[in-house]
Amino acid sequence: MARRRAPQRAPEPIRATSMWRVDQVFLARRGPRIEVTCSLVNDQGGLRNLSVTAPTEDPVQAVRHAARFIAGKGNVSGARQARLRWTREQATTEQDALIRDRLLEDEFLDEFEETLAAVRDQQR
Question: Which superkingdom is the protein from (predicted)?
Fold first, then answer.
């Protein structure tokens, strides 16, 4: 007697547009410029990194430049509670690698929110 197979569940569809959230921001000096890498997560556990090299060596201007770039993507919904740190090679001790730069976090979030509001206004 042949056994019947249990019906297979259809695989979950891949969402064409997934909303992402900024989780962490890393800064690294690359000569006279600063490279900013944003780690993004989505509601389904996906992870992706976006990097941009700011045309400046000023950290405040670099995070503002990166915030405009990331918020302008259109499918990044927020950056609340995003942690900002310098990369390990920029830290002089292991403890330095753990320290968050809260002032730069505020700069990033302010610029991100302003750009995101402008993008949403344009879409209306």
Answer: Bacteria
Q: What's the total number of domains in the chain?
A: 1
Q: What is the 3-state secondary structure (H, E, C) of the chain?
A: CCCCCCCCCCCCCCCCCCCEEEEEEEEEEECCEEEEEEEEEECCCCEEEEEEEECCCCHHHHHHHHHHHHHCCCCEEECCCCEEEECHHHCCCHHHHHCCCHHHHHHHHHHHHHHHHHHHHHHC
- Examine residue 9 and state whether it is found in any structural domain, yes or no: no
Residues 32-60: pLDDT tens digits?
A: 899 999 999 988 888 999 999 999 989 99
Please give the model's pTM, rounded to 2 decimal places: 0.76
Confidence of residue 94 (pLDDT cuts 50, 70, 90): low
Read off the CATH number of the domain in which 29 is found.
3.30.420
